[in-house]
Design goal:
Pfam families: OCD_Mu_crystall
Strand order of the largest sheet: 10-9-8-11-13-17-15-16
Oligomer: single chain
Number of domains: 2
Largest sheet: 8 strands, parallel
Order of helices and strands: EHHEEEEEEHEHEHEHEEEEHEHHEHEH
Shape: globular
Protein name: Ornithine cyclodeaminase family protein
Family: Belongs to the ornithine cyclodeaminase/mu-crystallin family.
Structural class: alpha/beta
Strand content: 25-35%
Number of helices: 11
Organism: Noctiluca scintillans (Sea sparkle)
Length: 324
């Protein structure tokens, strides 16, 4: 144990750090992390998912899960382990930061999942920066939980579009989401039909815990559109029809290997509709720009290098303010 033990960073301190971070800085950090990952400069063990099949469910809500992810950048200063848990609209989490030099814990970030929400949304914003049509006129949102709110917050720096059609299984929740986001300057229409959220979208965000496809290929094919699929982050989860994934003119994964196991790709591969060779990683597109064309599907499962990068930003902010 380090002489003084790890610094315990409270939730309030994490909130203050997040409020001080310019969105573009966070998005750029994700871009750098993904590029390092695709260059093979990062070690990322396979994630662990608890509370979901093939393991037993937790005693709480059937959608609840805990995900444990770890990573470190070769030659970096820290290694990070993150536990993010949640279900039924409730989220929690903790980020553990260790020194690569002394192997001792440097900080325990009691973030309640906020850093995960931010880095996930930043990946979505990066995808929009790289792949969204140049003139986005409508954004579709499928699922209106916490991450949907974060996705729109980070998109504010990427696209001037503020028109949104949002769907949820509960129209009451969709209307509450619309009202909340209107206060941030978004023109959000709550819709009762998922097709209505998809059919006019130039940029579609899917942020649910679905285990059966919600979004059909026929609603999106034949025009330029970016689909950022966030909900499928564990074996068995699925938001998109496999035929929609197969129809993509550009199929992008945050991690090719991870998406084959736990993203939308798991279903398209199992159906024999795509091969791993047809997939490019977003880090590869950061390194060497991919052509922005047609239907783009970004399969976002959450890679632990994102947790390293957001932890580094948090630690740097705390150090500069003499709070670490």
């Amino acid at each position: 144990m380090a002489q003084n033990g790890p610094r315990i960073v409270s939730f309030a301190e994490v909130e203050a750090v997040i409020a001080s971070l310019p969105p573009d800085v966070v998005i750029d950090a994700m871009a750098a992390g993904f590029a390092s990952f695709s260059r093979g400069e990062v070690s990322v063990p396979s994630p662990q998912t608890l509370g979901q099949p093939p393991l037993a469910n937790f005693v709480g809500h059937p959608s609840a899960q805990a995900c444990i992810k770890s990573a470190y950048q070769h030659g970096g200063e820290v290694f990070v382990t993150k536990v993010a848990s949640g279900g039924d609209g409730l989220n929690s989490g903790i980020v553990l930061v260790f020194s690569q030099r002394t192997y001792q814990p440097r900080a325990i970030l009691l973030d309640d999942g906020l850093l995960t929400e931010l880095r996930t949304a930043a990946a979505g914003a990066l995808a929009a920066r790289l792949f969204a049509p140049l003139n986005v006129k409508m954004i579709g949102v499928v699922g209106v939980g916490v991450q949907a709110r974060w996705q729109l917050r980070l998109l504010e720096t990427v696209t001037p579009c503020r028109r949104v059609r949002a769907w949820a299984r509960s129209i009451t929740k969709a209307r509450a989401f619309a009202e909340e986001m209107r206060a941030r300057g978004w023109a959000v229409e709550a819709v009762s039909d998922v097709e209505a959220a998809c059919s006019s979208a130039d940029l579609l965000l899917t942020v649910t815990s679905a285990r059966e496809p919600l979004v059909r290929a026929e609603w999106l094919t034949g025009r330029p559109v970016l689909v950022t699929a966030i909900g499928a982050d564990a074996p068995g989860k699925q938001e998109l029809e496999p035929s929609l994934v197969a129809a993509a003119d550009l199929l992008v994964a945050d991690s090719r290997a991870q998406c084959l196991e736990r993203g939308e790709l798991q279903h398209a591969i199992a159906a024999g509709l795509v091969t791993s060779e047809s997939v490019v990683e977003i880090g590869e597109c950061v390194i060497s720009r991919c052509e922005r064309r047609g239907l783009v599907v970004f399969d976002s499962t959450g890679v632990a290098i994102q947790d390293v990068k957001i932890a580094e930003l948090a630690m740097g902010t705390l150090s500069s303010s003499s709070r670490l």
